[in-house]
Amino acid sequence: CLLSITGHGLQPFDSASKNFSLAHNGQIYNYKELTTKKVQSDSEAIVHFLEQHTSIEKGISDFMKVAVGKYAVAIQSGNSLYAFRDVLGIKPIWFGSNKEYFAFASEPGALKKLDLQFPQPLLPWHLLKINAKGIETKNFYDLSDFRKTTPKDFSEQRLEDAFRQSIDYRTSGLKKSGVFFSGGVDSTLIAMSVAEKIKNTVCFTAGMEG
């Protein structure tokens, strides 16, 4: 369903130089801002962004600071595997090892089926690196880095501008949309703003008897 929104593409994606291959699960809302090249999907934009860097790790670090979205990304480069996730940790990555191999997956159950009994979650802002030396995690980004991006001057207008930018990112290119709707102030404001952008907008709500 996500690919039908942000473009189709068979994964993994290979870089033009064939230096690395990439697989991506998620959505990058500002992917068109990450590359000057014409791309068919947000996954392809990640490849082009990383190609601009001489080091995979530096490219990943820079990507995490500018990408807006929810994502889990895996990269194979040479004899190393890398994995990282969005800075809020919306998309999960779990990893572990036994006497035979190292592995990572989007859920711990997949690893337990491979006889990795004690999988660990990759923390947000962290990079997972696996090679012949073993498993290594690095912290690329933290809350203090995020605070540096916070404007020093606050106003209702800045808040509204940020909110509308968020709506624009998530509705770009859509001809119809659906909004999870509780009927409260937050969801009403979101539904109204989305409907202003996309006339064919439907609200969804759910409940249980009693």
Give the class from helix and strand content and strand pairing: alpha+beta
Percentage of residues in DSSP E strands: 25-35%
Shape: globular
Q: Taking Cα atoms only, what radius of gyration do you get, to the nearest Å?
A: 19 Å
Q: Give the N-to-C terminal Cα separation.
A: 33 Å
Helical coverage, percent range: 25-40%
The major β-sheet equals: 6 strands, antiparallel
Q: What's the tally of helices?
A: 7
SSE order and pairing:
Elements: H1 2-6, E1 13-14, E2 21-28, H2 42-51, H3 56-66, E3 69-77, E4 80-85, E5 94-97, E6 102-105, H4 108-112, E7 120-121, E8 126-131, E9 134-139, H5 143-148, H6 156-171, E10 177-180, H7 185-197, E11 201-204
Parallel strand pairs: 10-11
Antiparallel strand pairs: 1-2, 2-3, 3-4, 4-8, 5-6, 5-7, 8-9
Helix pairs in contact: 2-3, 6-7
